[in-house]
Design goal:
single chain; mainly alpha; 1 helix; 0% strand
């Protein structure tokens, strides 16, 4: 019978489990410039990802 390997997940930040969860602000409550910056960054990330899947890359070597 083949032996099953057991994998374990390391806790990189174990002290964070003992603290209270951080509240995430509502999107509408963020300042306009923050929302615009996040939107631009997410659009760029998606465009770069789409280019990478088509064999293109926007990153310089």
């Amino acid at each position: 019978m083949p032996r099953k390997t057991m994998t374990t997940q390391l806790e990189l930040f174990p002290e964070t489990h003992s603290t209270a969860a951080t509240l995430i602000p509502h999107w509408q409550s963020l300042p306009d410039d923050t929302r615009h910056a996040v939107t631009r960054l997410m659009a760029r990330l998606m465009m770069e990802h789409a280019g990478a899947t088509e064999g293109e890359s926007y990153h310089e070597a």
